[in-house]
Design brief:
membrane, 52 residues, mainly alpha, transmembrane
């Protein structure tokens, strides 16, 4: 989460474009979290619907 906040600060407060390597790293982390979240949801979706 720190990386996303730091990039937001770079853009808004300092008016500079974030480092390209950090953008790729954060994109990779976001994709990994998306894949893990989708996997976990598919694994638990039958139990999850009972709590809604």
């Amino acid at each position: 989460m720190y990386w996303y906040i730091e990039q937001f600060r770079d853009i808004v407060l300092y008016a500079k474009f974030p480092d390209v390597n950090s953008i790729y790293m954060e994109f990779g982390v976001a994709i990994l979290v998306l894949i893990l979240g989708a996997w976990y949801f598919n694994k638990k979706q039958d139990e999850f619907i009972l709590y809604i």
